[in-house]
Amino acid sequence: MRLIAILISLWLNRYPERFDRWRRSESFFGYADWLRLKVLGPNRWQGAFGVFAFLLPPVLLVALVQWWLGGWFLGLVLGVAALVFAHGPSRVDDDLDEFLASWEQEDVARARRAASELSGEEESPAAMDALPEEAVRGLFWQSYERLLGPIFWFVLLGAWGVVLFRLAYVAKEYAESRDESSESFGEAANLLVYVLDWIPTRLAALAYGLAGSFVHSMEEWKQAAEGRFAGNRVGFVGAAMGALNLSLREQAPEAVRSTAREARSLVTRAVLCWLAVIALLTIAGWLG
C-alpha cells in the first residue's frame, strides 16, 4: 500500500496548480499567529513548548484518522493526501526551467530570483557565474525536502510521520518569516528539523552516490558536513554535487542547460533507488 501511495503522489505532483492553495507554508502562518497571540501568549510560545503546541493538533488528528481508518483503501487515500501535502507548492522542475530561461536570456535579476526560489535563500550570490551552481544545489535540496524526506517518514510512520516532517519545516519557515530564527522558538524548530533530517539525509546521500559518482559523493560528504544545524543540508548537498561530478562554473548557457539535465537525471535515479528498496521491502512482506 505504501509503495502505491508514493507512486500515486509522485504522479499527482505533476499537476501542482490543483493543490498549491492548501499546501503552501503561508497557509499555516495564520494558525501559528493565532496560537501565539490568542492561545499561548508570547512567553509560552517560545521554546520547545511552542513548537509542540503548533505541531500537536494537526499531527495528532492525522495519527487518529490513520489509526481509525485502518482499511487498505482509506489508508491509501490518507497516505496520498499526506505525501501530496508534503511535496509542497509548485514543481521544482518548473522553478529550474524558469532559472534556465532567464540564464540563457542573460536576465540577471530574474535569474537571481529563480535561483533564490530553488535554494530557499533570500539572497543569491553576487557573481553571475555562481548562480547555476546555486540553482542545482537548490534542486538537490528540494528533491530531498519535498520527496525523499517525506517518503522516508511515510515508510517509517505512515501519514502522520509525513505531516510531522512537513510541519516541522513550516515551523522553521514561520520563525524565519518573523525574524525569530535566533529566538527560542526558532532554535527549537531548527533542532527538530535537524533531528528529523539526520537519518534520511544520510540515506539520500547514499542513494545519490549509488546513482552517480560514489567516490566523489562520499568525499564531498566528509568535507562538507560541518556545523551543528547546517551539517545535514550542507553534507547532503555536497554529496549530491559530488555524485554529479560536473563543474557549473564558467560554462556557456547551452552547457549549463546540459549540466542541469544531468542533475535532473541524477535526482530521478536517486528516487528510483529508494523506490526499488521500498519495492523489495514490500515484496519481502516487511512493508504494508
TrEMBL record:
GO biological process: cobalamin biosynthetic process; response to antibiotic
InterPro entries per the UniProt record, alphabetical: AmpE, Beta-lactamase_Reg
Record carries keyword Membrane: yes
Keywords annotated in UniProt: Membrane, Transmembrane, Transmembrane helix
The keyword Transmembrane appears for this protein: yes
GO cellular component terms listed in the entry, alphabetical order: plasma membrane
Transmembrane segments: 45-65, 72-90, 151-169, 266-287
Pfam families, A to Z: AmpE
PANTHER family, per the entry: PROTEIN AMPE (PTHR38684:SF1)
Name by which UniProt lists this protein: Signaling modulator of AmpD, AmpE
Protein source organism: Alkalilimnicola ehrlichii
Top-level taxonomy: Bacteria, Pseudomonadati, Pseudomonadota, Gammaproteobacteria, Chromatiales
